[in-house]
């Protein structure tokens, strides 16, 4: 059954109903999802009507890169040393964080101090 010309579409009627429910703060999550989908479709339709279609992508030229094995000690690949440095720093930071959360251990040969009730740590 087709709507007569000039009559609002079913989608327009539903969107109006959902917007009214939203304005009155009576909308459910399912209705909000439906309203979001309706409005997203409306935006896409407007974009298709207003914006020209994108040009087809240009074919890419093939780039040949010759890979050769390199040594860590040669210093020719700077990110290798950076990765090692980053790993070492993350380990040091993890140790510092652990010590600050747990507190430093007591020195050898000393008795731990008793905690008073209600005092932090």
Let me know the largest β-sheet. Answer: none
Low-confidence stretches: none
Instruction: Measure the end-to-end span.
Output: 75 Å
Average pLDDT confidence is: 78
Radius of gyration: 33 Å
- Percent of residues in beta strands: under 5%
Summarize the structure in words.
It is a single chain. With 121 residues, this protein is mainly α. It has a domain at 10-50. Helix content is 50%, strand content 0%. It is built from 3 helices and no strands. It has helices at residues 10-23, 29-50, 78-102. Helix 1 (10-23) crosses helix 2 (29-50). The mean pLDDT is 78.
Write a concise synopsis of the structure shown:
With 121 residues, the protein is an all-alpha fold. Helices cover 50% and strands 0% of the residues.
Summarize the topology.
Layout: H1 10-23, H2 29-50, H3 78-102
Helix pairs in contact: 1-2
Index terms:
121 residues; mainly alpha; 50% helix; flat
